[in-house]
Amino acid sequence: MKKSKKRLFIKHIVTVIIWLFTVSFFSQELSLEENKVMQKIDSIFDNSDREIALKNSFKLMNKYRLSGDYISTIVAINKINTLYDIDKSQRTFAGLNSYLGQAYNGLGLYSESINKVSKALIYAEKEKDFQIMFSSLMILSEAYMELDIKDKGKRMMLKAYRLSDTLNNIESKKMVLGNLSLIYSNIQNYDSVKYYIDKLELLETNKERPSTFVHLHKGNYFLEVNKLDSAIYYSNIFEKELKYFNNKHNKMASDILFSEIFLRKKEYVTSEFYANKALAIARSEHYKDDLVDIYELFTNIYKNRKPFKSKLYFGKKEALTDSVTTSNMRSAIKNIKLLYDIEKNTLDLEKINLENTIKENKLKTVYALLAGAIFIIGLTFFQKKKINKAYKKLVKENVDSVNTQEEITNLRKQLFQHSKPVVIPNKKIKLTLENAESIELMIRKLFDIEKVFLEKDLNLDKLADYINTNRVYVSHVFNNNIKLSFTEMLNKYRINEAKKLLLLNVKKYTIEAVALESGFKNKATFNRNFKQLTGVTPSFFIKSTQLIKNN
User: Does the pTM exceed 0.85?
Assistant: First the structure.
């Protein structure tokens, strides 16, 4: 009898050990695809206490920011927000949003910059945090000006100017005065240009060593109002100051200004001399945008004297303008793709953290079961509430991802409108890097504008026929350029469409109707893909989004 009880006891112990081992095994954390920036911040987080780790993570993020590595800056900030769970009502979160705005401006994604920095401005105005308010206004002004919303950009900069009195910081005031003079020059309000340049000049107390380009601004101002002797006077001052602003771009700007002044004076030989100096710098340093302006300058220099040369430079200007536009468009598309990847990685990380939280909670529940039934009831209720909260957070991230994808799609549509017709290689021509980019552009256009993913029978062969090439080339572009398989991209677009339908028409559509409307052949396939890509079921997504709207 005693041996029987002993065997039974050992059997229970073995069962418990196997149970605990199994739960522990499956609770191991999942990992994202390797990312150097994320790995560095993970390493800092794992090897220091929280306060020191946060300080060192900020140091790394600032290193990327100050070096102009905008993509790494965005990745670092998103990782910091996730790891350290930065409170969205605190100054740190507002400051990070202003840094995100700087990075998005650097990438030319001005709408996204406005979205992020507006949140920082709301915090700053509520808390009367003048430093964050000032930097937010400066960043927003730049974004609005670049989007050609000039009146709003001007208002933001004027608000920053008034705020600079409160900050009592000379360098901040100099910065905003210089920007105001450029804004008013852009809208051709030259009285205001002179007013702000004069105020800037008064702040230059060290006449021997200036800290701003005030005399370059004055030279340009007097050129615009056709006071050419004054323009030459201030341009000469700026040329002497180049020893303090010692870089080739500033020297080129000085030469261009002299050339334009002497062109206005009809002293063509002198104008040509300075234009050639500027041209040499622009070519050696590959300043393509400035080359466009210099070619236009030569077009005007030779216009009346040497019509053949004038036409030659006009042709060069037009060709380079097309080249720069194409290059900028490709760069913008690349930045949009990188931005989408960053947002996707952040959402993936939230899903992984949620899964780990669920598994950790299950393990805790097992221990609680061993402790007693009463404790289990309370703990189960608490853990269920916690898991439900985590699921709702994941739903909120999915809702935000719909808005992000919509922003990216709108940016792509703008790029497609201004892009030239692409040349697609036929089925017998060898695939080159440029051809692959053309095929990628057509795929993006078909998915973003034509919405071919809604076709239930869409496959790789049919997509290749739409583009007028072969499936081998299309498959190559998916794997090497887009970095997704055809099926992965198809499901991603269909699920994003489904999320939009569920958000906008929760009462109108059944889940089966949404599945069919978003391109799936049946409800089962839709449910499986929806859970896989979002982390929640469609019905849970509907309930949670209704609660979000009601709140």
Answer: no
